[in-house]
Amino acid sequence: MNVFAMKATYPLDTLTQQELTQLCEDAALTDGVNYLEWMHEQDWNEWDTRGFFVFIYDEDHDRLVAALSAFDAFGLHAYEWSMVIEPLYRSIGLEEVLIDGLKHGLEERQATGEMAVVDQRQEMKQVLEQQGYVYSSSKLQMMTAAQQENDVEFNVRPYQPDDLQVVQQMMSDGFGDLPEETEEFIALMDEESSSHVFVATQQDEVVAMVTTAVLERQLWITSFTTLASKRRQGIASNLVKWVKNEAYRQQLESVRLEVETENIEALTFYKQAGFEVVEQVDYYIVK
Predict the structure, then answer these.
(1) Are 66 and 84 in contact (CB under 8 A)?
(2) CA-CA-CA-CA torsion for 146, 147, 152, 155, nearest 10 degrees?
(3) Are the C-beta atoms of 19 and 64 separated by less than 8 Å?
(4) Where do the H-state alpha helices sit in 176-263?
């Protein structure tokens, strides 16, 4: 078998899109995974998408047989990636070729981090472990419709520099982030046009924050936390209503987020807020 690998950037030409669509659909029949979504189909025509592909072709049959998509979803210079391989071409070393191409692409872009997104297939996890990756976490992707909600009981406005201290406190209480990590995170969000930081206020006091990003016609909640002294007062529920309203206002299709599988409290909260589980994904990081 003669194969060759190549990298490609957005946008993809029409022929490559057709080949990648066929590969994703063929693999989905075996794996039950929506590979078109994992390969970010809706962005293939976009010039400003941050990411790249690694493709492997079978030269003997002039056919695309494997692909890897690395995607900087939120403009933070950290890439999530996933791969799809034609079932008949698995376990012959193509996985390693894709990952080698990934490493070159990340180095070229001076990436600050990477994370592999995989499904539940054991053989893929074994490949990652052999390549120096370790299991990080499992998350449930959840979704609810963008819709108009009534009775949002506080004001929500864009983040302002004067909010930094209270936001740092909330990020520390909610996620254990250091003050400098929060400051860097907000600066990166500010650089990205599709990402935004909002704060909720009651009587001019900041009581909660949410960060969002528009991705593939969906409004993603990328972080969400409430001031520790204001929890269990309905603030989080009202802020979720506001996010649904915002997605509706922007004429987006849905609101999505990820929750770690062991975070039972958050899972319960989001289910009560109308979110449904779409799929589970496992994340692997470099040792």
Answers:
(1) yes
(2) 50
(3) yes
(4) 179-191, 235-249
The Cα 200–Cα 197 span in angstroms is: 10
Q: What is the CATH number of the domain that holds 107?
A: 3.40.630.30
Domain that holds residue 198: 143-280
Provide the number of structural domains found in the chain: 2
Question: For each of the chain's 287 residues, which pLDDT tens digit applies?
Answer: 899 999 999 999 999 999 999 999 999 999 888 899 889 898 899 888 889 999 999 999 999 999 999 999 777 789 999 999 999 999 899 999 999 999 999 999 999 999 999 877 778 888 899 999 999 989 899 999 999 887 777 789 999 999 999 999 999 988 889 999 999 889 888 887 788 999 999 888 999 999 998 887 899 999 999 998 888 888 999 999 999 999 999 999 999 999 999 899 999 999 999 999 988 889 999 98
Residues in the chain: 287
The reply to whether 285 falls in a domain is: no
- pTM confidence score: 0.72
- 174's enclosing H/E stretch is helix 164-175
Considering 80, 109, 131, which residue would you say is the last residue of a domain?
A: 131
Q: What is the DSSP letter of 107?
A: H
**147 and 272 inside one domain:** yes
Spatial separation of the C-alpha atoms in residues 238 and 273, rounded to whole Å: 10
